[in-house]
Amino acid sequence: MKVRRISFKTKTIIALEILVIAVNVWLSFFVWSQLDQKVREITREKLVAIARTTAQFIDIERHEKIREEGDEESKNYEKVHEFLKKMIKANPGVDDIYTFRKTDRENVWVYVVGGMEEIDKNNDGVIEEDEEPVGIGEEVNPLQYPPQILESFDRPIAEKEINCDKWGCWLSGYAPIYDSGGKAVAAAGVDISAQDILAFEKKAKRAILTALVALITLLPLVLFFILRLLVRPVSIIVSGLEKFSQNLGSRINVRSGDEFELIAGTFNKMAGELQGLYQGLEEKVKEKTKQLAGRVREIEQKNAEDQALLASIGEGMIAVDWNGRIVITNNQGEFMLGQKKEKIIGKEFLEAIIFEDEKGNEIPEPKNPIKQTLTTGKKATSSSLYLSDTNGLRFPVNITVAPVALDEKTIGAIAVFRDITREKEVDRAKSEFVSLASHQLLTPMSSIKWYTEMLLEGKKLSKKQKEKYLGKINNANQRMVELVNSLLNVSRIEMGTFSISVKPVNIKEIIESLLDELQPKIIENGIKIEKKYEAPISDFKADAKLLRMIIQNLLSNAVKYTPAGGTVKIALRKEKNLIVIEVADTGCGIPRSEQGRMFTKLFRADNIKEKVIEGTGLGLYIVKSIVDHSGGTIGFSSEGNKGTTFAVKFPVEGMKEKKGTRSLS
Amino acid sequence: MKIMKEVKSNKKILVVEDDIDLCEAIAEKFKSENFEVFEASDGEDGLEKALKIRPDLILLDLIMPKMDGTTMLRKLREDEWGRLVPVIVLTNISDAEKLAEALEIGVDEYLLKAEWKLQDIVDKVKKILGIL
């Protein structure tokens, strides 16, 4: 809505000025049109006044005695003439004052006395007729004059129009002269020349007009200032409003004592309320803004924490949008994918990440777990995919992809993946172990199966053969029992559940007892035993059972792997603050290449596998585990075909106690 | 007319097995079935004996020290004669991959020791050799 910006003030002033000027103009025209008449009126009145005065003060007795020509010389005429002259002199501007009377002839009047002197008007030295004053008895026809003369005997009256006679142009005024009886016997006439009249009228007109013009000019001006003053409150109010829009504290000060003051007052009240309201609001906003800022800070902090969290988690993470474009990734992801964040973000995941199968072939798109999740909206996992890192090395990953849903639509996916090389190795080791263990169990089982078969067949077996077969079955069974026990021990060791309970034991006694047990084997293998007890410690704090297992294993190994005629030396001594149990043999030794794996599960060195069937490959693993858990150390030195020496060392204080749920068998 | 009695020459079997007891059991069984039995306890020995003796059939274990069964088999098959000799894998492993390897190289049969009776093994051998 466009607002014509002409101020109220201006509008008002212009309107009123126009009005005033219009009125002035009309007034001027009116006055102008009446002016002539009015001025004439003034003149006429003046004439009449002079005529009346003359008529009043003229000596009527003397005047009536002047009747005919010749009377000019009389005293009466002189006196009246004198009087008239005085009257003329007393009224400057008057050209002539004279008298006249009626005759008994109709419309024939006669002059009586004239006040004018003879004047050589044209300065030619001769007094012409028109330069002569009016003479007694000179006839005058009133009809030749303006009609007002006809009433000159009735009342004072002045001509309306300028008239001209043989003497010139005049305007005359008349007044009746009364005798003592109240009868109008003559009339006085006053003449003012037209020139004078016109000059006078001109002057008068000029004066009036000047006044008029001044009025016309000044009036609007004065009006203007008055209006401005009256309208000032409007300006004050307007500027006050403008100021208010900048500063709510400003108010309008109008003391005009009228409606404007009322408006201003009302406005001020409203302004006050608004200001108060606004301040209150401002405070509320400030408060809320503070709260908001606090909240934003919280969120930002949480965000930063989340970011830090995200950046730091040990698993690789990428998130993709519904178009499969990578949206974010974390540091670990960057590292595992072998690409910088900046390079990956925005790229399609199918391009950026290459998954391979075990054989090194790129997996087809339908098999891509990220693709699957995006398509089906369901979680997808895989442990059989491989990635290549920055160096081009392949490594297996476990990847889990979860959908990101919004309003039941899949808008993206988050994939978390980690390097499972270790786990796969462990898995492989486990399955190898299981294979090996089951193989080790199946072998004696096959043995039992076949020998039993042959025995049951019954055909032509000698007693010796039967005994042999039963012996083999028995051995096989024993092997299985040992293996199962060892496996159980291994399991307990792996789970860390076995217990070590210490009390004082006699190491020498244990060794002796074991040697007794092994006696048959020792004799069978033709082994010589040498003992050296330098420190026959009788109160070594240990778990008797476990200590026995350790020494039994070392001794039986030494005997098992030493060919006939060999020697097994057992030593028990003290080294500084350690107890040392040493078992040395002159057996087939351990090849250098096999020495590293001596203590691993199910390991049996190649050089003894063919020579000695019996052996689970678990013994040393169990021994080492026990030694490690109980605070001791075990080591060996060996040379192929020369022999091996094993040494177990414990602190003098004894074995370390350990709480557990089971004991090893 | 001289009626010639067909002299059945005994078939030669080579048993390559590292477990002595099992090896003996197989040997005794086949001997009692009138086979001539040769034994080897590792792949190296087994290969040598196989190429030398040229048995009619080889019973081969896979898990052995020095040289395992699969390697021996591969080397055997490189030989002109070895390419054709029937081989039965006797094993206890259930590792499909190892088995598959051996089968790829070319065996006539594989038997799980723990599941097969000696008699059944004998019957199988006879079948492969076309005896009875």
Molecular structure report:
The complex is a heterodimer of chains A (665) and B (132). In chain A, helix 11 packs parallel to helix 16. Chain A has helices spanning 8-57, 60-65, 75-90, 194-246, 259-312, 331-337, 341-344, 349-352, 369-376, 421-457, 463-495, 507-525, 544-560, 592-595, 606-609, 619-629, and strands spanning 96-102, 109-114, 139-140, 157-158, 163-165, 168-178, 184-193, 316-321, 326-329, 380-388, 394-406, 409-419, 503-505, 528-533, 540-542, 567-575, 578-585, 633-639, 643-651. In chain A, the strands form four sheets. In chain A, strands 1, 2, 3, 4, 5, 6 and 7 form a seven-stranded antiparallel beta sheet that branches. Chain A has a five-stranded antiparallel beta sheet with strand order 9-8-12-11-10, with helices on both faces. The mean pLDDT of chain A is 85. Chain A is an alpha+beta fold. Chain B is α/β, with parallel strands linked by helices. In chain B, 43% of the residues lie in helices and 17% in strands. Chain B contains five helices and five strands. Chain B has a five-stranded parallel beta sheet with strand order 2-1-3-4-5, sandwiched between helices. In chain B, helix 2 runs parallel beside helix 3 and helix 3 runs parallel beside helix 4 (96-106). The longest helix of chain B has 13 residues, at 20-32. The radius of gyration of chain B is 15 Å and the shape is globular. The two termini of chain B are 28 Å apart. The chains are: A alpha+beta (665), B alpha/beta (132). The interface between A and B is medium-sized, with 23 and 25 residues.
List keywords for this structure.
heterodimer, A: 665 residues, alpha+beta, 7-stranded antiparallel beta sheet, B: 132 residues, alpha/beta, 5-stranded parallel beta sheet, 5 strands, 43% helix, globular
